[in-house]
Amino acid sequence: MADRHMLYISMQIESGCHMDCIHIHGGKPLEGEAAVQGSKNGALVLVTATVLIKGQTVLYNCPQITDMDEMLGLLKTLGCRVKREGVAVIIDASSLHTSDCPAKQVRAMRSSVMLLGPLLGRCGSVSMERPGGCMIGKRPVDIHETALTCMGVRFRKDEKQILAETEGLKGAEICLPFPSVGATENVLMAAVLAEGTTVLYNAAQEPEITQLCHFLNEAGAKITGVGTNCLTISGVVKLQPVTFTVMPDRIVAGTYLLAGAATRGIVTVKNAPVRQLTSLLDVLRKMGAVVRYEENAVVLDAARAGKPVPYLRTAVYPGFPTDLQSMLAAVLTRAEGSSAIEETIFEDRFKIVRELQKMGADLKVENNRKLRIYGVTKLYPARLTACELRGGAALVVAALMAEGESKITGCDYIRRGYEDICRDLRLLGADVEEKRE
Ligand code: EPZ
Predict the structure, then answer these.
(1) How far is the centre of ligand 1, averaged over its atoms, from the C-alpha of 266 (Å)?
(2) How far apart are CA 400 and CA 128, in angstroms?
(3) Active site amino acids
């Protein structure tokens, strides 16, 4: 996968087309306030759920990110009418006429796999290229397939494609071997129009799941146990179009809080979903930061947030989120002592170590699940390359800590999940700009 990334870089250079590059003059405490965009992972799954609804669904606070563009493009290809007005997205799936998802569009975005449930619920079949792994792990879909098979779905064995069909989805009792977010979402969306009742044990409890349940219930679904790891879904005949507001992005909020911690600054993050950030806020307090809540905002005073974190493990919600792991690792490279992070969700999520070492950070991967970080007093600016979304955001956080100018390429990865990280960090007082190289 790393070769594919290097190929991307060389193609960009050869074709003479410019690469976007984030320039950061770091080394000073951030001070300012920024608002949080709509949730990428929350919005993407709601968009896939609109496939189940004949009529116009309106989603407000949809983030303007490239993953959303890709997903809306895929729905258009399937025949849905899609309109975007700023942060509002209007989707009418009445005219959906195929469930064959084009390979190029599926390849562009892993989250296409969340169309399995809705397309089976709507059309009784689906074909899509098997989503490949990515820089953070193999990302198999076996849990999705086993769960949907319990509901009467037949998967044809194929290395390259997911080919699935059903004579009609049936309610079932399903216990997930691991509380997979995507598999929980697919079962939910397959079950809402299935015949009979589905009970899903060991369901994921991430806020994005709770939001999806509220969305589906507002559209007429019958889901109980919302917010727990046991969801009961009684199938209904049809869903009604709804108007719904996407929740704020907890990972983007966490990114900006960690940027404040990295620079020992004072940052205010407006409309942050604080109740979803408890695990991060607990860690930041242990590091010496002071957290204050204001009307619809959280204020972090990180002037004395230099303590190391002797041991932390990522975990499913409400544990420490894997999506914030790389950014915390970046912050801890300058802690006053040694820290350790165990990554329990993905098997290859320490890709930024080599880039941080270029800046003088002292850290090492003890095995593919454990990272040891020895705090240093200084990080040096460097030319850095992002190779995946959250790792890219972590390099931005690291560059904010280094006196002098750092340059980060691979901004396309960051744009997948952040509307405009440079705009938001400038509001927080950073000296950051995106330029064509
Ligand atoms: C969702 O991915 C998020 N993506 C991820 O955010 C997030 O990191 C992850 O949940 C965990 O919270 C979206 O919502 C679009 P999983 P998902 O299924 O659904 C393994 C970001 O940066 N697994 O809970 O793919 C899997 O390989 C992204 O916004 C199987 O083995 O996560 C992983 O190791 C990154 N078989 C673990 O479970 C399966 O069938 C967690 O995966 C499914 C998953």
Answers:
(1) 32
(2) 41
(3) 134
